[in-house]
Amino acid sequence: MTTTSTQIQLVRRPVGWPTHDDVRTVSVPLDELADGEVRVRNEFLSVDPYMRGRMNDVRSYVAPFALGETMTGGAVGRVVESRSADHAVGDLVLHQLGWRDVAQADAAAFRVLPAIEGTSPSLYLSVLGMTGFTAYLGLTRIARLAEGDRVFISGAAGAVGTAAGQIARLLGASQVIGSAGSDEKTALLRDKYGYDIALNYRDAPIREQLNAAVGETGIDVYFDNVGGDHLEAALDVFNDGGRAALCGAIVGYNSTERTPGPDNMSAIITRALTLTGFTVGAHLEHYPEFTARMTEWFGSGLIAVDETVVTGLENTFDAFLAMLRGANTGKMIVAL
Amino acid sequence: MTTTSTQIQLVRRPVGWPTHDDVRTVSVPLDELADGEVRVRNEFLSVDPYMRGRMNDVRSYVAPFALGETMTGGAVGRVVESRSADHAVGDLVLHQLGWRDVAQADAAAFRVLPAIEGTSPSLYLSVLGMTGFTAYLGLTRIARLAEGDRVFISGAAGAVGTAAGQIARLLGASQVIGSAGSDEKTALLRDKYGYDIALNYRDAPIREQLNAAVGETGIDVYFDNVGGDHLEAALDVFNDGGRAALCGAIVGYNSTERTPGPDNMSAIITRALTLTGFTVGAHLEHYPEFTARMTEWFGSGLIAVDETVVTGLENTFDAFLAMLRGANTGKMIVAL
Lengths: 336, 336
What we know:
The structure is a homodimer. The first copy, chain A, has helices at 50-54, 130-142, 159-170, 183-191, 206-214, 228-237, 266-270, 287-299, 316-325, and strands at residues 4-10, 23-29, 37-46, 69-70, 75-82, 92-95, 102-106, 111-112, 150-153, 175-180, 197-200, 219-224, 238-246, 274-277, 307-311, 331-335. Chain A is of the alpha/beta class. The first copy, chain A, has two domains: 4-126 and 306-335, Medium-chain alcohol dehydrogenases, catalytic domain (Quinone Oxidoreductase, Chain A, domain 1); 130-281, Rossmann fold. In chain A, strands 3, 5, 6, 7, 8, 15 and 16 form a seven-stranded mixed sheet that branches. In chain A, helix 6 (228-237) links the parallel strand 12 (219-224) and strand 13. In chain A, helix 2 packs across helix 3 (159-170) and helix 5 runs parallel beside helix 6 (228-237). The longest helix of chain A is centred in the middle third of the chain and has 13 residues, at 130-142.
């Protein structure tokens, strides 16, 4: 009988890189289920770059995490007890209640998922879920990818990047260029994810590498997961009318100093570029469209997936830190 | 009888601030008019910030000026000889043949203008022409100004800025904030151009001043004529979903060093901002709409105008340099 829930809570706002002193683990007794409530044993938790931003108390499109409360975020689990007519014991569900082994709340918090034979339910935290939606939204609605466009994606071996490269290709991009932080990752980008060019940003400044690779033909779309030197590199090679979807700037997330922006901002005017930052929450009206298309692509075997899986709730925070360091290929997942 | 044309030509690409050695003045004999051609004696020439960019040989939406050729740009003059059925001697015309006292070309190069009683034809180089269109386009199509928006305009006492402040108000902005480089200019912004708040950027860092003035309520739209520290200041105070129309970055036009960009680029993501650079040439389909609305506003006495007038073709280059230094209030015009 599941009567307690172990949870990870934010107790201090990190300055620079988060440490274990910024969080605590608590076990709380669970109330009896009230009418309309559901209890879920989680199987997979999501750790995502945007969570680092929510640890800060800054004005943002997404509210900061509250101190002393459990870290929220995507999770997939199974219903173990239900007082909801719509949720049966054994149902696979997706929810946003985050870093805990057992989640209990009003049934409306839990969305029942279809089981996909032969694949892990964790995919609903990655390519079939918010991660895939982030890539799809950024390319289609934010960067307005058109057929024939040349596309550069930074952080290409990460969860969003691996999805974005494939989606760009499926949407008709004529060339897909990616950056990642190891030769293993760049090989994977070329061999598994269909990138035409994959650059290891540790080999030489990404600006030099990108100019050398595509300085002549340029890029039309940039999907930014990294920021900093990568955005600067992209601004160098944009064609007229280029569009950047700014999704993440992981390079600065744990910086305690203000770092200067690109030294070539004037390109935004001279080449009539558009830079648009986005978070998915403001665009959920496109989610059904994403689900329809991604389900078809995935079902047709057109989408390759990698996961980096860490096991155990007690390792969630370390998995989060490892993801921020770029230790993952594809989505970083915590399996309970 | 007009038989020669005196013209100012670019002979060297400036490094940093342009100097007189970068241009030369030549007098060229004029051919007899061919059938379909028109000869125009110019009355007013335009000197504009974008011309500095065109002096460089860099990839840009607008082609660089050719070395050894006459500087092109907006000019207004009167037809003195015509072999075109559509252009009568005495007609007031607008053209793009630039820095010369007499212009001669196929009639298609000259657009006949209506005379406006009691006002100078030079207004077709400013608020009734490309300058006004730049302000209108940037606010309506690039920054997508909505009623009730709070708007910040840098370089507000310049040609585009004085137009933009008034247009923003007419389009329903709830608050208009401007920056300029002297107390005389900020007084003018408040008293003549309807700005709610006018900041003298020489008093203290514009970032501090803007945060103090509107840090609480924020801005929704930023019309950027300056770049650099002004763009950084705007990024600090943007509300969620804010839009920046990047029209100019005069602060960097004559810099020989790469200057770092804003240190707060992450705001673009966390507040889902859009930064869009633009030049008017790519959006001429909106020109008739602009003309219709501006003619109505202007005719109703709703548009105040300042000009800074320099006399004599021989002073054109100095007028251009003075404009780059911000010596003008409203449009800098050369009267011949």
